[in-house]
Amino acid sequence: MTDTPPKGDRIAKVLARAGLASRRGAETIIAAGRVSVNGKQIDSPALNVTPDDRITVDGKALQEPEPERMWLYHKPVGLVTSDADEKGRRTIYDALPEDMPRVMSIGRLDINSEGLLLLTNDGGIKRKLELPSTGWMRRYRVRINGRPTDPDLEPLRKGITVEGERFQPMQITLDRQQGANAWLTVGLREGKNREIRRAMESIGLTVNRLIRISYGPFQLGELKAGEVEEVRRKIVRDQLGIEASDQTGTAKPSPKRPVRKRKPR
Asked: I need a surface site. Which of 117, 194, 213, 252 has the fewest CB within 10 A?
């Protein structure tokens, strides 16, 4: 026996790195028998490949992976963060500019939430930034119905269990009262499904607007609803600790104007 690890990378990682799908999505493609390595069809992701291996998907050669890229997207209310929706609702991918490459969302925002959504062409980046161990703070501007006092919010600062699910302590600032509503700034590091809405409901408060304003070091800033802006590749590498595969930095600076958007259907 030998403890020497096999050469290369897992096939699902290579497919994700090429922008074909997320790693989990790549595993589904493999299980469907759509992938061949050196002319042999495979049905399990338990395989390492090297650059010398010939990989095809649906009979077509796998393209060389593009350099890692990321975009900031201001998601409007009313769009689903999903490739497809079983209810036929419009998704973020229906609304993105026509000249965008294939991208994946890093995390989600529910249909009634808006604000900053990170997009990437790289499955490895998606997976890395979605892991709880990454620990990046996500900040939200939250409007709630009612007149809460600062002590009312203290249970959420200490951490709370809702329907058997434990939510970690949140950073919460009571900013101002505006008529029948109050505005809060909320920071959290996990981002579980509808976490802020469910946590607020557990202490008797109803969220009627939720805007993500930052995700780690990336800020929504002045980006308007529906606009997309690419992050400079050097910033992506620096923030994510990625070695530069391309020292020349071919990425263009973030556009000053929004990328052309699709015409309404």
From this structure: 252
Q: What is the pLDDT of residue 255?
A: 38
The rounded distance, in Å, linking the Cα atoms of 212 and 202 is 21
Cα angle 176, 212, 202 (rounded to 5 degrees) comes to 65
Nearest of 237, 265, 255 to residue 99 by alpha carbon:
255
pLDDT of res. 101 = 85
Structure tokens at 223: 């980006």
Q: What is the pLDDT of residue 132?
A: 74
Give which of 247, 241, 243, 217 is closest to 231, Cα–Cα.
217
Apex 19 CA angle, 77 and 216, nearest 5: 50
Catalytic residue among 9, 85, 110, 152: 110
Query: Is the CB of residue 157 less than 8 Å from the CB of residue 168?
Result: no
Q: Please tell me the distance from the alpha carbon of residue 8 to that of residue 48, in angstroms, as a whole number.
A: 6
Parts of the chain with a pLDDT under 70:
1-5, 242-265
Strand ranges in the chain using DSSP code E only, listed in sequence order: 9-10, 35-37, 40-42, 48-49, 55-57, 60-61, 70-75, 104-106, 114-120, 138-145, 160-162, 165-167, 171-178, 181-188, 206-215, 218-219, 228-230
Task: Give the tens place of pLDDT for each residue, 201-236.
Answer: 999 999 999 999 999 999 999 999 999 999 998 888
- Joined together, the tokens standing for residue 80 give 């689903």
**244 Cα distance to chain centroid:** 22
User: What pLDDT does residue 38 have?
Assistant: 94
Rounded-to-5 percentages of helix, strand, coil across the chain: 20, 30, 50
Q: Kindly state the tokens that stand for 178.
A: 């505006």
In the block, tokens 């890395």 appear at 128
pLDDT for the residue numbered 2: 52
110 is catalytic: yes
